[in-house]
Amino acid sequence: MPDQPERNRQASFGCLKALFMLDVRIAQRGRKGWEWRVIHSDETLLMRGRNRTRPEARYQAYRALLLLLASQPGKMKTVPRG
Known about the structure:
single chain; about 80 residues; alpha+beta; three-stranded antiparallel β-sheet; 2 helices; elongated
């Protein structure tokens, strides 16, 4: 029975993945720009933007992702430690 806590922890991670998955996508648009999007797992567009360089677009996309995660602390379930 020493596996019981580990099994519960794995089940919690599985639920977390099913409930809350976000994705960052970056694509080149034309010769002068990159478009970034933050998308929910059901393909719902949450945030988007455009930048001139790919590193700048990547930075802004991940910044938007972190802002989304920080703005909804009560909506995400935490996995118990221990």
